[in-house]
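Subgroup meeting minutes
Present: P.N., E.W., G.H.
Scribe: E.W.

1. P.N. recapped why we're keeping a running log of single-chain structure predictions: easier to compare across weeks, and new members can see raw inputs and outputs side by side.
2. G.H. added today's entry (173 aa).
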Amino acid sequence: MKYIIELAQIFINHFVRTSEFMKKALPLILLLTLAVVLFFIKRCSHGASSGSKNKTSTGSTPAAVNRDRGFDRRVSYLQYSNHARCRMECRHITEGEVEETMVDGKINYRKSDIQNARCPRYALEDETKDGQHVRIVFAQCDNYTEVVTVIDLDTEWTCHCPGDDEKYKNKNE
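Output recorded in log:
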């Protein structure tokens, strides 16, 4: 900081000889000095506050996190429905790929039901390491997040999971 101030003083003493130049250059010099000072202040204060944020979020419990304020991407509270397990087996999608999608996937709000009163549903889309383009639906309840279903968006798999045909039974009659 002293170095910057000394440079500004040298510049003023050495180059500022006429009052016309002083009128034009002084506001610019003051503005640049102020910008540099603000940059250092912001940089120092940001470094100190980011350390405390990490400490708070690491030791959080489900009760301490407000799960009503968006999708909670912590995989430690993840559970799988029977339907999701069946779909995962049929479509060759692993728990690791589901967890990666939960952490890194993009929320498709058109396919999500975030207004669901009991457990808002978030449809996340991602590409797995083996190249599958997947959509995974997560139901975020109060104390856990449940994997509802797993969909491969590129390949039509023939799965025989419980409950698949019951949805459409009355529509054909």
